[in-house]
Amino acid sequence: MLRKELWSAVEEVLPALQEENYAVFVVGDDGTTESSRNLSNKIQAASDEALPLSLRAHVTFNTPCVYIYTSGTTGLPKAAIIPHGRVHRIASFISGCGLSSDDVIYTTLPLYHSAGSLIGVGGCIFLGATVVLRQKFSVSHFWDDCRRYNVTVIQYIGEVLRYLCSAPKRSSDRDHKVRKAIGNGARPDVWKEFLNRFGNIQVCEFYGATEGNVGFMNYVGKIGASGRVSFFSKKLMPFHLVEYDVDQEAPVRDANGHCIEVAKGETGLLIAKITSKSPFVGYAGSKSLTAKKHLRDVFSKGDLYFNSGDLMLLDKDNFIYFQDRIGDTFRWKGENVSTNEVADILLMLDFVQEVCVYGVTVPGHEGRTGMAAILLQSGRDFDGAQLYEHVTTHLPSYAQPRFVRERTTIETTGTFKYYKVTLVKEGFDPATVQDALYFLDNQKRSYIRMEEGIYNSITTGQARL
């Protein structure tokens, strides 16, 4: 089923769908084509009598309800199987944030992901609240929409808050009825700026993967935390943070072959035990897709855990913090480098609007060295000397990006996650990369333009990194 304006996205795969006997319905006026059926007409013609319960007698909480695709930022998207029971649990999550049927929830998030569809729309159905949808996020219309529709709750992804804080200030910034913001990925500095600028809004940060079996909620508003762990939450969703080897891309195992739990205050890989109360259903298609997320014999022979792929930290007060994703952490000079931490430092520069940090391989060197794709602020020029001074002041040597790529756009998914696969593959060769490239030169104390001669000296080992 699709809207008429999205028909072109299906046309090329339509023959394959027809071979599999899939029915294609189009929503919208005059949506009928030779290869599809108009759903709007069928809805208008349908009886308003209740459907017999026998039609759904076979449906249980374990029956698949929807498929939701993961973003695919480090690989191809996969269709996560979401059973009816999980849809109910996710939709009811919103009540734990203190919402009621009187609330008006505004979401600009894509409905093909669980945040917008299951938490936003599903949560409103669960509460009997009102949902306001905008087809696409707009900084300039955001607060005007909130005022127009008397919005009391907004949904966000971390980058949404950053975009709002980056917009020019208005005298009406605090003229709204928004009392809560629900979402994930808010950086501490943006979180603080958002509250200072837009007023007393309770930010309800949470952590959870669409297909995962563990989640956290920051119900006390601790800035920067993804949630708080309690005795009861760990009983319902048993999890651990374990040591992770970035080079081997696997958890560290002891002499007995078991994973090693990290101490409080240390970063570890989040894994969650798969049980009947916290199941991991997996993905549609090949069983190998689901098996890749399994960890076996973790603490004892035969046990089974879900590998979240996320690095987290639990502090002494049991607040848990998202640190990075496995694919977004690389090792250089024997040290682990967090792309999120490096990006946060680069975004402090006044001429940088967006930045995507990743690791690239260099011939003759172990691990990967840092590279940053940056989008400049409108009307600003790249300042290699200022950038050099900034990174050498705020970052240790191993975390300083050796290469910088100036972009006109940085491609993201529908939830504002950066596509890094292509950037990593293209590397830092000025003969193949069309964008302006720069290299960190310690002698000149600046990022200088990458030329073929510099590239050759790096790849042949003459230049020191």
Describe it.
The chain is built from 14 helices and 26 strands. Strand 8 (153-157), helix 7 and strand 9 (180-184) form a beta-alpha-beta unit. The longest helix is centred in the first third of the chain and has 14 residues, at 114-127. It is of the alpha/beta class and 465 residues long. Helix 4 (84-92) crosses helix 5 (114-127) and helix 7 crosses helix 8. It is 25% helix and 27% strand. It has three domains: 2-50, no CATH class; 60-211, Rossmann fold, CATH 3.40.50.12780; 333-459, ANL, C-terminal domain (GMP Synthetase, Chain A, domain 3), CATH 3.30.300.30.
Topology record:
Blueprint: E1 2-3, H1 8-11, H2 14-19, E2 25-27, E3 37-38, H3 39-45, E4 64-69, E5 79-83, H4 84-92, E6 104-107, H5 114-127, E7 130-133, H6 139-148, E8 153-157, H7 158-166, E9 180-184, H8 188-198, E10 202-208, E11 215-217, E12 227-228, H9 231-236, E13 239-242, E14 244-245, E15 250-251, E16 267-273, H10 287-291, E17 294-296, E18 304-314, E19 319-325, E20 329-332, E21 335-338, H11 339-346, E22 352-360, E23 369-376, H12 384-394, E24 403-407, H13 421-426, E25 436-441, E26 446-449, H14 452-459
Parallel strand pairs: 1-2, 2-3, 6-7, 6-8, 8-9, 9-10, 23-24
Antiparallel strand pairs: 4-5, 10-11, 12-19, 13-16, 14-15, 16-18, 17-18, 18-19, 20-21, 22-23, 24-25, 25-26
Helix pairs in contact: 4-5, 7-8
